[in-house]
Amino acid sequence: MSPDIHESMVPQDDSQVVVFHTASPSTDETSAQSPPSAVDILERMTDALVMFDHEWRAVYANRAACRINQKSREHFIGKTLWEVWPAFVSAEAENQCRRAMDEQVEAHFEHYDVTQHDNRWLEMDAFPTQEGLNLLYRDITDRK
Description:
By secondary structure, this protein is α+β, with helices and mostly antiparallel strands. It has helices spanning 38-44, 63-69, 73-76, 81-84, 92-103; strands spanning 20-23, 30-33, 48-53, 58-61, 107-113, 120-128, 132-139. The strands form two sheets. Strands 4-3-7-6-5 form a five-stranded antiparallel sheet. It has a two-stranded antiparallel ribbon with strand order 1-2. A hairpin with a 3-residue loop joins strand 6 (120-128) and strand 7. It is globular, with a radius of gyration of 18 Å.
């Protein structure tokens, strides 16, 4: 298992595993194939995903997060939400993330990211988890 993914993200029993079936080229029967790993799915997503623990420290950032923010994974891992996005401090984005974590509810919001040299609008979804908070986002600058 990748050290970037917390062990609790991996399905613990068969009820959480999806088995993919494909037609066998030689027999036209279906056969079970190994499901894609959680890491593979997260890395192939076009939306950015950064996972934070209860101390607000990033524990995972997918490839899209690195691409959208034009930063390496090291820019995220171990840093707090406010170190990753200084513009969140006292902004509506911080309020939404805190509300999601405190009330254990999902939050959907837009954030004007001024930390990049080419300022951008991000559409963000904050999802509380047992481990902390997942922040899923996408660049919507072209829509604005």
